[in-house]
Structure formats: C-alpha cells, structure tokens
Write a structure and sequence with these properties.
This protein has about 100 residues and is mainly alpha-helical. It has helices at about 1-15, 20-30, 35-40, 45-55, 60-75, 80-85.
Length: about 100
C-alpha cells in the first residue's frame, strides 16, 4: 500500500504540470462524436459542457478524470493496467480556489 501511495504522489507531481486542458480534450472529442453522444457519455448537461469547453468552469477532479479516460479510450489508447489509470491525476485545488 505504501508503494502505491508513493507512486501516486510522484506521478501527481510529475503529471500535474502537464495536466490536459478540459476544453481542448472536449473539443477534440466533439470532432469524433456528436454532442448528444458526449453528453450521454459524460452524464452532464449541455450548459455544463459549454462552460467546461469555454473555460468558464473547470470540471471536478472526478469529471476531469472521466473526460481524460474517455479521450484515451476513443483514441484507441485505453489504459490496460491499474498504473495506467494513475497516468494523470487532477491537481489539488489551492485554498484560494475553493
């Protein structure tokens, strides 16, 4: 368990700086699917999707993880091992962002 925690912390530090932008991923997904398909996949409203794409709002950590995972799967790069799911971990919010 301690090894997994150490690996997770290390990967968080390494990948947070390169965290994908939700608007970019969503726009890319919309090139390969319809808005209705993406809304159904992400289980969000049209308004929420619009705000994420425009940068008006940021997805929660769980929503961003789902966006990232759907993007990988739709591009034929589905995670194959548990460690692959740790490939990108949403950065934690600072106290001033809450």
């Amino acid at each position: 368990m301690r090894e997994l925690l150490t690996m997770t912390v290390a990967m968080t530090r390494r990948h947070s700086a390169n965290a994908p932008q939700p608007g970019k991923l969503l726009n890319d997904l919309l090139q390969k699917s319809t808005e209705a398909e993406l809304l159904a996949t992400l289980a969000c409203s049209r308004s929420t999707l619009r705000k994420w794409r425009s940068g008006e709002r940021q997805p929660s950590g769980a929503a961003m993880r789902l966006i990232w995972l759907v993007h990988r799967v739709w591009h034929g790069d589905a995670p194959k091992e548990m460690a692959d799911f740790l490939g990108w971990i949403p950065p934690r919010k600072n106290a001033d962002q809450v």
